[in-house]
C-alpha cells in the first residue's frame, strides 16, 4: 500500500498550521509546513543582502543555500540554515514579507518542488501550503481549502504576535494580510487557489476547537469516500 497524503491549502492566518499539526497528530501522520521552507529561503535572502523579489538574484543564490528540514522525535519540524536552527527566526514579520516575495519566483518554486514531493513519498503526511493540492501533490488522498475572512485572520495573527511578545498594530497586521493575499493569489507561478476537488472549510465564525472538528470531520468523510 502506498502512503497517504492530505493537502491543506489556504491564505495566511486561516489557522492552517495549528490545525494541520493537530490533524497530523490525530491521524498519526507527519506534519509538513511548507510555508516554513519558503520562509527559510526568505530569511537567507535577507541575510545575504539579496532583494527577495529579484528573480535573477534569487536564482543565483539558490546553489549557495544550505537548507535542511529535521523532524524531532515528537514530529516537530525544525528548519536549519547550515548548522543554525532558524525555526523561530523565520516567524518575524519582515521574513513573512520576504517569503511572499521569494515564493512568486518560478525558479524558487521549481527548486523546492522535489523536496516537498520527497517528504510525502516515504510516509503519511499532512502537508500545508498554498499549492499543495494544485501543484505539489495533485494526487493527494484528501484536499482541503481552509479559509476565513481577512479580518478574522488578521485578528488571530495580531493575538499570536502579541502573545509572542512582538506586538504589532492591528491595522498594520490587516493591511499586511490583505497585501499578502493579493500577492499570493495574483502571482503567475502557482497562485493560491482552491483545487477543483478540494473541500472548503471556512473558519471565520469558528473558534479553534470548532475549526479542528470541522476539519477532522471533513477529512474523515473524504478518506471514507
Ligand atoms: O504559510 P506561511 O505564511 O508560513 O507562508 C509563507 C509564504 O510562503 C506565503 O507568503 C506564501 C508562500 N508559500 C507558498 O507560496 N507556497 C507554499 N506551499 C507555502 C507558502
General description of the model:
With 225 residues, the protein is an alpha/beta fold. The chain has nine helices and eight strands. The strands form two sheets. It has a five-stranded parallel sheet. It has a three-stranded antiparallel sheet with strand order 3-4-5, with helices on one face. A hairpin with a 2-residue loop joins strand 4 (77-81) and strand 5 (84-85). Helix 7 packs across helix 8. The longest helix has 17 residues, at 170-186. The protein binds 2'-deoxycytidine-5'-monophosphate. Residues 12, 34-35, 38-39, 99-100, 103, 129-132, 180, 184 line the site of 2'-deoxycytidine-5'-monophosphate.
Offer a quick outline of the entry.
The protein has 225 residues and is of the alpha/beta class.
Amino acid at each position: 500500500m502506498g502512503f497517504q497524503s492530505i493537502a491543506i491549502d489556504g491564505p495566511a492566518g486561516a489557522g492552517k498550521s495549528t490545525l494541520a499539526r493537530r490533524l497530523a497528530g490525530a491521524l498519526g501522520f507527519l506534519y509538513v509546513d511548507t510555508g516554513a521552507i519558503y520562509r527559510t529561503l526568505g530569511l537567507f535572502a535577507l541575510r545575504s543582502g539579496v532583494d527577495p523579489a529579484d528573480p535573477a538574484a534569487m536564482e543565483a543564490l539558490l546553489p549557495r543555500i544550505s537548507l535542511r528540514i529535521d523532524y524531532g522525535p515528537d514530529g516537530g519540524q525544525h528548519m536549519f540554515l547550515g548548522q543554525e536552527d532558524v525555526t523561530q527566526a523565520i516567524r518575524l514579520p519582515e521574513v513573512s514579507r520576504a517569503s511572499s516575495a521569494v515564493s512568486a519566483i518560478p525558479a524558487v518554486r521549481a527548486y523546492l518542488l522535489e523536496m516537498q514531493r520527497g517528504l510525502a513519498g516515504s510516509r503519511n503526511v499532512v502537508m500545508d501550503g498554498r499549492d499543495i493540492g494544485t501543484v505539489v501533490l495533485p494526487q493527494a488522498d484528501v484536499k482541503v481549502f481552509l479559509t476565513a475572512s481577512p479580518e478574522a485572520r488578521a485578528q488571530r495573527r495580531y493575538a499570536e504576535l502579541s502573545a509572542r511578545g512582538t506586538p504589532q498594530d492591528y491595522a498594520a497586521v490587516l493591511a499586511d494580510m490583505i497585501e499578502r493575499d493579493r500577492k499570493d493569489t495574483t502571482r503567475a507561478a502557482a497562485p493560491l487557489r482552491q483545487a477543483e476537488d478540494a473541500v472548503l472549510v471556512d473558519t471565520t465564525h469558528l473558534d479553534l476547537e470548532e475549526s479542528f472538528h470541522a476539519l477532522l470531520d471533513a477529512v474523515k468523510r473524504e478518506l471514507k469516500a
